[in-house]
């Protein structure tokens, strides 16, 4: 889509939707659920197969229940993300919180001006979770993103993610940015989504949700290069429109761990997070499209 078309037609519509009250947004979300799940069947086969492979112990009835819960949650996340464009800090903080233990854990690093590598998955509302850091804490969050092919929509998403002062950096420019911040003695939390599909040849392979799974080594490589602690951010949906983030310290001494250990640990943390609330993960992506190479 051309930039001028996006600015004239799409952006005003998205902005208009973002100013709606939550009750109206969720009414629209419920309508979209009917369209996406019952009419279009968006990636329904992918979702159901992913769930069956990940939870072989569950009955057909249980899989169908989780599938419906997932699509309802997925539609909610779409409209909650749009709401980020106009939501106030106070309203976001009321609806998305850090647990007391998480605040204590993170402040123990920030009080020492210690940078950390933060890892989370596509759990709960990951867009809210990523931006919440700047609502609660003073230290900078450096969010890592992969640029979208549509430049206009990419710019729109960058505005959403950087509303409260976050430092949003593309993966290609991350190392340079972190070195600059270290030279300026500016501590930061590096925010990584660690459940993307990694290229099979360069990935760390593990068993995740009963399946051979390639995992990016980015979080581990960053932690070892800078010797920064690694923290997993766990997301829980409390009820519709309300979330809570908890933390699990993976390591405070990354350089002294064997290769693969950090990646294994944060992947298992994600697995536990998913098992606690199966519907709240992004099941519609093709997480297991690659087969494990025979020589690995």
Structural features, described:
The chain is globular and about 50 Å long. It has 11 helices and 9 strands. With 296 residues, the protein is of the alpha/beta class. The termini are far apart. Strand 8 (230-239) and strand 9 form a beta hairpin. The relative contact order is 0.15. A 7-stranded mixed sheet has the order 1-9-8-2-5-3-4, sandwiched between helices. It has helices spanning 3-18, 22-40, 44-54, 60-83, 89-95, 100-110, 126-136, 151-161, 174-183, 218-226, 261-276, and strands at residues 96-98, 116-120, 140-145, 167-170, 188-193, 204-208, 211-215, 230-239, 242-251. Helix 1 (3-18) packs across helix 4 (60-83), helix 1 packs parallel to helix 8 and helix 2 crosses helix 4. It has one domain (3-280). 49% of the residues lie in helices and 18% in strands.
End-to-end distance, in Å?
Answer: 42 Å
* Order of the strands making up the biggest sheet: 1-9-8-2-5-3-4
- Order of helix and strand elements from N to C terminus: HHHHHEHEHEHEHEEEHEEH
Rg (C-alpha, Å): 19 Å
Indicate the percent of residues in helices.
40-55%
Number of domains: 1
Main β-sheet, in a few words? 7 strands, mixed
What is the number of E strands? 9
Give the overall shape.
globular
Helix and strand content put the structural class at alpha/beta
Strand content: 15-25%
Stretches where pLDDT is under 50 for at least 5 consecutive residues are none
Instruction: Report mean pLDDT, rounded to a whole number.
Output: 93
Helix tally equals 11
